[in-house]
Design a protein that fits this description.
5 helices; 5-stranded parallel sheet; 121 residues; 5 strands; alpha/beta
Length: 121
């Protein structure tokens, strides 16, 4: 199963990968992107099962990347992972196509319910 993780912070990507592998197992394929433009290309190239998307990034923000990916694939499963927990940001992310929202810092406790909801666990 492929997962796309998009965040401009390498440390944030590492934390998410660690939590994801701890819950799902080591036998998963992870594709990384550091901005929204890279995420769109990575999505086209890899067709991931789930995409985890930060909101605040250079080149293209997560809001626009979510919207563009959902235009490419109406069934895209995108979870926003962000420190921006303003109600307006959460609403905009979901309006653009995100299925869920996890507040940073990510860990197994806040990741597990999302994976259960998407029937990964």
């Amino acid at each position: 199963m492929k997962y796309l993780i998009c965040d401009d912070s390498k440390m944030a990507r590492k934390m998410l990968i660690k939590s994801l592998k701890s819950l799902v197992g080591d036998d998963i394929e992870i594709v990384e992107a550091s901005n929204g433009l890279e995420a769109i290309q990575a999505y086209k190239d890899n067709s991931p099962f789930i995409t985890f998307m930060d909101l605040t990034m250079p080149e293209m923000n997560g809001f626009d990347a979510v919207e563009n990916i959902c235009k490419l694939d109406k069934d895209a499963k995108i979870i926003v992972v962000s420190a921006d927990i303003q109600e307006a940001s959460m609403t905009k992310a979901k309006t653009n196509g995100a299925l869920g929202f996890i507040k940073k810092p990510i860990n197994e406790d806040n990741l597990k319910p999302v994976l259960e909801k998407l029937k990964v666990l």
